[in-house]
Amino acid sequence: MGEHTQIIIAPGRYVQGRNAIYEIGEHVSLLGDRVLVIGGKRGLAVTREGRNKSFTEKEIFQVEELFRGEVCNSEIERLTGIAKQHNCNVLVACGGGKAIDAAKAVANNLKIPSVMR
């Protein structure tokens, strides 16, 4: 790499703003129509109303699953199994760092796109 060369790794799309969660269906619909939503109690609770409304408007099926708190093989396998059981083709993570890390691992296992909230 040259002296002035930079590598920037960034998401393909970044959305933020007041009530942006009410638009999540619009963005997720570009990726798929069957979503596994992973998060902690608080992350799931604060996004539920907006997700439900937006996913319903875009006719997106969702399965919500509580992340059990630790990023470990058994938890990743459990969540991967749930996604497979419901034929999920997109993964959405709602919450903090560990939930997001687990969601990324599940999405990677399944080779499906992921959305982090």
Automatic annotation (TrEMBL):
Pathway annotation: Polyol metabolism; glycerol fermentation; glycerone phosphate from glycerol (oxidative route): step 1/2
UniProt keyword NAD, yes or no: yes
Source organism superkingdom: Bacteria
Top-rank EC class of the record's enzyme: oxidoreductase
InterPro entries: ADH_Fe/GldA, Glycerol_DH
One Pfam family named in its UniProt record: Fe-ADH
Reactions catalysed: glycerol + NAD(+) = dihydroxyacetone + NADH + H(+)
GO molecular function: glycerol dehydrogenase (NAD+) activity; metal ion binding
Keywords: Metal-binding, NAD, Oxidoreductase
Documented EC number(s): 1.1.1.6
Keyword Endoplasmic reticulum attributed: no
Domain Alcohol dehydrogenase iron-type/glycerol dehydrogenase GldA positions: 11-111
Protein name: Glycerol dehydrogenase
Organism of this sequence: Pelotomaculum schinkii
Chain's gene name: gldA
